[in-house]
Amino acid sequence: MKLHIEGFDEELGGGIPLNTVTLVAGTTGTMKSSLCFNILFNEVRLNKKIGLYISLEETFESLMGQMLSLNFDLKAIDVVKIGYDFSELRKNKDRLLKNPAKGGLIISDLGLVRRELAGKELAPNENWFHITKALIKELKELVGLDIVVIDSMSALHVLSQLENPRVTLFYFFEFLRDLQVTSFLISEIPHDESKLSTFEEEPYLADGLLKLTTTDRHRKVSREISMVKLRSTNANLDVFTLEFKGGKFRALYGGQVPVV
Ligand SMILES: Nc1ncnc2c1ncn2[C@@H]1O[C@H](COP(=O)(O)OP(=O)(O)OP(=O)(O)O)[C@@H](O)[C@H]1O
Ligand SMILES: [Mg+2]
């Protein structure tokens, strides 16, 4: 699957293998959400795929606001907002997407799920990992998902307060792979880049690790992108400069030291 970053997909040998899990790790404001949205948008528009964006950090409205400010033509694809009421989803299965054969983007935001769950306590053995898994599984059965974005794993951990996060994580990654979806899991990394994820297992468990950072050279800040690892491919692991211009992500070879 293409990441829809000009000059970068080519370096990965066309994109990433289908049905794998990629961790998108980046410091704050490095366009993690926008980059993942861009993948979903283009896969729906060009390849008629069905994508799910689970937004645990931002509301639907805030996410759409950011994507409109980046000039995504949201009218070009079918975008639907859903909650977590499974009986509603099942009842309206045929109306969930206008035409599933043409693909579509389903967005679930935490605010809506929270409102629906308000007053209903989670069972003692339930947590947000279970809720997220159930939602993905349900949509896979109802409409046949191709791509899932979780924004972010960091938020999922904070919400879940797991007693045994490592075991839960292991099964969560297994679950995503078994379900035959291509997943992108966003992870917030601290500014000093001392770690790439909330739990050190995440980069090991993932098939791919895409890293987004910023650097300042002579007070000019630029965005950087690199594929730190990509299992079973011969990807170029170099660091590239990332640009967003004219509605497109572009990677430029960043290996050269600028002339002072
Ligand atoms: N046209 C543009 N070109 C480049 N950057 C832009 C453009 N429009 C907005 N931005 C930047 O995009 C950033 C926000 O992008 P996004 O929300 O995708 O980042 P993020 O990594 O998900 O952030 P967060 O850490 O808040 O989740 C902002 O820092 C903003 O300055
Ligand atoms: Mg974000």
Intertermini distance:
39 Å
**What is the CATH topology classification name?**
Rossmann fold
Uncertain runs are none
Strand order of the largest sheet: 1-11-10-9-8-2-7-6-3-5-4
Count of helical segments? 9
Strand content: 25-35%
**Which CATH architecture?**
3-Layer(aba) Sandwich
Write down the secondary-structure element order.
Answer: EEHEHEHHEHHEHHEHEEEE
Overall morphology: globular
Largest β sheet strand count, sense and barrel closure: 11 strands, mixed
- Which class of secondary structure composition applies to the elements? alpha/beta
The unique ligands bound to this protein are: adenosine-5'-triphosphate, magnesium ion
Number of DSSP-assigned strands: 11
The value of Rg in angstroms is: 18 Å
Count of discrete domains: 1
* Helix percentage: 25-40%
* CATH top level class name: Alpha Beta
Task: Tell me the name of the CATH homologous superfamily.
Answer: P-loop containing nucleotide triphosphate hydrolases
Mean pLDDT: 91
